[in-house]
Write a structure and sequence with these properties.
Length: about 325
């Protein structure tokens, strides 16, 4: 996902001299070619994310389209005031890019867990929010960002995420993608945990539950049509995300469902609303926090059983 982002950014920067990349002293190795081919469009702001974001806003207000870049929660939480006041308030054409969303940098501990970013970025007026599920979705989102610009936030995985889409896809801003259809329930996924959601759907099928899967590369704007359709088509909607249960995809879907008549129940599979003191790689931490395919499957089956019991009591 990270490599695809830089491939797409390099192509865009070579075609458009108004595209500028500002890094917080991160990414060397993957950004070398961009710096070599487009030196006048490359700025290293140092490990100073507030300055990086303020600088980007100024460059954008002078007419450029600017991508800022750092890892985990550093390009969002450390410089939240600058994103809110300098970028979003002034409608500056800045795309804030974070590589290593969720638990990608789990081996570095809690300080590098990006698990509240979607909630906080969603709350900023006028800021588009994207979290693609694989490299193809990254390219589709990048095509929109390059064409239409910011203010926006782009959350990427770290590297080496499984390829879900075997061919390029086209995507409008705010559009979701149906990967499996014809099932009894539906799984909504956002971000790099998409492949785990698909594997959970396979396990659910073995348990006798056919699960459709829909990817949401965009959280803001959100695909309201798809959510409305799901609320009237399926008895159960499941959201899956590598993010706090507060404020991410599950919360966004719940907010929409709360304002429409429907009979669908919502199961939110996400990180619990507390800090994790565990240290380990992403796969280990996903398993420890119930986000591996087996745990997702167990949670869905368990909650569906609870919901059936509650429904029988109502009758």
């Amino acid at each position: 996902m990270r490599s695809r982002f830089f491939d797409d950014l390099l192509g865009a920067a070579e075609a458009d001299p108004n595209i500028v990349f500002v890094t917080g002293d991160i990414g060397f190795g993957v950004v070398d070619e961009l710096q070599r081919k487009c030196p006048g469009q490359f700025v290293n702001a140092g490990v100073a994310e507030q300055n990086m974001t303020g600088l980007a806003a100024g460059i954008a207000l002078a007419g450029a389209r600017v991508f800022t870049y750092s890892i985990a929660n550093f390009p969002t939480l450390r410089c939240l005031e600058q994103i809110r006041n300098d970028v979003a308030y002034h409608h500056a054409d800045v795309i804030v890019v974070a590589v290593g969303g969720g638990l990608s940098y789990g081996a570095l501990g809690m300080s590098h867990h990006a698990t509240e970013d979607l909630a906080i970025m969603r709350a900023i007026p006028g800021l588009a929010v994207a979290a693609p599920g694989d490299a193809a979705e990254t390219s589709a989102v990048m095509a929109d960002l390059v064409a239409n610009g910011g203010p926006a936030y782009l959350r990427l995985g770290k590297a080496g995420e499984p390829i879900v889409h075997r061919a390029p896809i086209q995507l409008c801003r705010g559009e979701s993608i149906a990967l499996r259809t014809g099932g009894d329930i539906v799984l909504f996924s956002t971000g790099a945990i998409l492949e785990s959601a698909l594997r959970a759907a396979d396990l659910l099928a073995q348990a006798g539950v056919r699960a459709d899967v829909r990817s949401f590369p965009w959280l803001d704007p959100l695909d309201l049509v798809a959510i409305n359709d799901a609320a009237h088509r399926y008895p159960t909607i499941v959201t899956v995300e590598e993010h706090s249960v507060i404020g991410g995809l599950g919360s966004a879907v719940a907010e929409i469902l709360a304002e429409m008549p429907h009979s669908a129940s919502l199961i939110r599979v996400a990180l619990p609303p507390r800090f994790s003191s565990l240290v380990g790689d992403q796969e280990y931490l996903r398993g420890a926090h119930g986000l591996d395919p087996a745990s997702i499957t167990h949670r869905v089956l368990e909650q569906m059983e609870v919901n059936r019991g509650l429904a029988s009591q109502v009758r």
